[in-house]
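Researcher: Good morning. I'm working through a list of sequences from a screen, and I'd like to move beyond sequence-only analysis. For each chain I'm collecting a predicted structure so we can compare shapes side by side. This is the next one on the list. No need for commentary yet; just the structure.
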Amino acid sequence: MKLNKECESCKQRLNLWALSVSLFLILMKGVIGILGSSESLVADGLYSFYQSFVLVKLILLINRNEGTSSIYKSVWFAGLVISIMLILGIGDVLIFSIVRITKAAKGLLVRPSPYALYAAILSVLANQLLYRYRLCSGREMPEKDVSESEITQSLRLSVIISSIVVIGIGIARTQSVYGDALAALIVATIVIPKVINLFNQSLKITTDWTLYGFKGMQSIGGQR
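Model: Good morning. Structure tokens for this chain:
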């Protein structure tokens, strides 16, 4: 029993650390991506935003069975708002990436700042450390919970996305100016299905009127 409590405490600390790192990466990627002329880094920051919500969702819903239905509803309502924000953000990334490709064809595109490359490398290292630590911890505390598995998968995907961004910025700085814009399009393509799934799930749950005390009414997406 004591071991189980220690494992749960360890998982909670890891989730909080991962959330703290994700919040830092959101700010860093957003600011440096915009100032450093890197659309792919901005797209990576949007995925970090999504990943942060996944972590918050797990942390807040860990005690859902203890009669906290209001928290459950609030988390999914926040998920609905966040998914809409992410859809708009990804839309901007797609538009600006196409604009950058057009400018590159005319020889007008500025190469990404070296600081954008440094930020992308830092992101890869930070996400890789979190993912490896998560795998190491998973050997001692098996992940039977779907949410726990979702965290591990999101961390693994964050490593892949950040690696794509590093390659894209590296190519844009040393070889072809198209590298960053193409990396942004690839990242956006990976993130879009995740965000749409979050939107659909959040909409389905927040419009389930039985959560608000109304009987016999279904959500927009049907029954949960």
